Amino acid sequence: MAENHSEIMGKAMEGVSTIKELEVLVVPSCCILPMKTVSGSKLSIYSISSQMEKRGWNMFTGQNPPCMGLCVGEVHSKVLGAWLKDLKESVAHVKKNPDEKPTGNAGVYSAASTIPDDLLDGILREYVNISLSVRPKT
Predict the structure, then answer these.
(1) 23-79 pLDDT tens trace
(2) Which of 69, 82, 104, 132 has minimal CB crowding within 10 Å?
(3) What is the CATH number of the domain that holds 23?
């Protein structure tokens, strides 16, 4: 029998809780599992997200506080173990390489927090124009 969404989310939350450098930001009531580094940590959640992206995972990032989120769906009943393994490896990589800058989507979001608001809107609009494409009509 397939697991239901709340069972998958519970396992994901339990898995994140085994990583001492991370914590669940809030107990989710929907499908997004938000997480952040523990208080006092020097690790960058954006660097962790970048490492996850390099491993093929699409993580959402946010600010205030810096966080990343996993959109939990049915497929996670099959891939949650691999995701947790990659998350642990990503945290270990960032611990070993604390000065490595975030890259990919998380790098853009991380840098956005340092740009003045009056410039940010135009920059992010251009980034979206460059990074997103629409399938051509066939």
Answers:
(1) 999 998 888 999 999 999 999 999 999 999 999 998 988 888 899 999 988 888 899
(2) 132
(3) 3.90.1150.10
